[in-house]
Structure formats: C-alpha cells, structure tokens
From TrEMBL:
It comes from the Bacteria. One of its GO terms (biological process) is methylation. Residues 56-145 form the Methyltransferase domain. InterPro entries: Methyltransf_25, Methyltransf_Superfamily, SAM-dependent_MTases_sf. CDD domains: AdoMet_MTases. Pfam families: Methyltransf_25. The keyword Transferase applies. This is Class I SAM-dependent DNA methyltransferase. It comes from Kitasatospora misakiensis. GO terms for molecular function: methyltransferase activity. Keywords: Methyltransferase, Transferase.
Length: 217
C-alpha cells in the first residue's frame, strides 16, 4: 500500500533541494556573528556532557553548519534533514559526521536512543496541526533526563518566501509564539527549563526565541 506524503513535506523538500548550494554558501560562517546562538548551543553541549554524553541529533540540519559546531564542542552528533541535496552537502562538508535523510514526523531513532536533540529553526515549516506529533517524536527518542533545544522566529502566521536566490520555488516560514511552543513541549511530556527571546539583529525581521527542555527522569 502506497502512503501519500503530506504536501508540506514535499514543498519543503523541493524548496531546500533547490536552494541548498546557495544557502550553504550564504550561511556557512554565520554562527561566528551570532553569540546568543553559540551560547545556547554551548549550554546544551555542557548539559549533555555533564550527564555522561551519548548520541545527539540535529534535526533539520541543512548543510550541517550547526552539526559541525556541535561536533567541535565534543558531542557525538549526527544530522537529519528532509532534503537529500542538503544531506549531500552536509556529508561533503563534514565527512566524519553521519547524516541521513528523514522527517520530523517519523524519526529514524529507537525509543530513548538520544542523549540530546537540537531542533534549530526546524519546526518552522510544519503546520500547527502536525506539531503535537513532532513533539511526541522528540519525547519518544530522547533518553530520560536528556535535553532538547529549539530555536524559532517569534510571531503569528507565516512569511511566504518566493524565488530565494533567484530559484523558482516558494515556501511558508511559520512564526511561533514561545508560550505555544512551550505548551506543545509540555503536552508531549517535556519539561521546559529555559526560555530566551531576543530582539531582531542584522537582517532579521522578527524576535528570535530559544527554548530548552528535557525529558523527565
């Protein structure tokens, strides 16, 4: 029996396959100018290390720039992305890190397998009605006590991005309210411990949020 893929997954894959090379070139060194991002990722890495380490995953890893940073912080990290082209670029840039194609709706990890999750702007293309399933998957694959850190744009509704880098594709970038994301985490059995919202910087148009949670022991 053939299962039809949700349209939003097909749209996201098509979009990111088309812009992958341009995106990788544009944002390859962006983390160097983003101290808040580095700080939150550093806290995440310290929590994983203090708990004894173990495999962690960046979900929605794109070309692997955050994944590579996590590896530099000493984590046993792997990456997952919906876009085969993004995964191809990530493997080329970081040959020592395992990357695979996959969806947030059906994570390719066993129950309690991961010592941590990074979901860096990876819930922004998922419709609201599908987000509870995504957070349930986060909870399922996390080991008891393991942390998850998320980043997302703050706001309501979606920003339609058309013809990025001159490519003939379009995609909705959905902004989220921190209290709503926290409610989703709590509904899936995750305990939120840290919330940070900062004002827009450089080319950003909206505030940016970071949320740190964990699966209870």
């Amino acid at each position: 029996m053939t299962t039809t893929e949700p349209e939003f997954l097909t749209a996201a894959r098509t979009f990111y396959d088309a812009v992958a090379a341009d995106y990788a070139d544009r944002y390859r060194d962006a983390l160097a100018a983003m101290p808040w991002d580095r700080a939150m990722l550093g806290v995440f890495a310290e929590l994983v290390t203090a708990a004894g380490g173990g495999p962690v995953a960046e979900l929605g890893c794109g070309p692997g720039r955050i994944t590579g940073h996590l590896a530099d912080l000493g984590l046993d990290v792997r990456g997952l992305d919906l876009s085969p082209r993004m995964v191809e670029l990530a493997r080329a840039a970081h040959p020592a890190i395992p990357f695979e194609v996959g969806s947030l709706l059906d994570l390719p990890y066993g129950d309690g397998e991961l010592a941590g999750i990074v979901a860096w702007y990876s819930i922004i293309h998922t419709p609201a009605g599908e987000l509870p399933r995504v957070f349930e998957e986060f909870h399922r694959v996390l080991a008891p006590g393991a942390p998850i850190v998320l980043a997302f744009q703050v706001g309501d509704g979606a920003l339609r991005v058309d013809n990025p880098f001159g490519r003939p594709v379009a995609l909705d970038f959905r902004r989220r309210r921190p209290d709503r994301v926290e409610a989703l985490a709590a509904g899936a059995g995750l305990t939120v411990t840290t919330r940070l919202v900062r004002e827009p910087e450089a080319e950003e148009k909206t505030p940016q949020a970071y949320l740190l949670a964990h699966r209870p022991e």
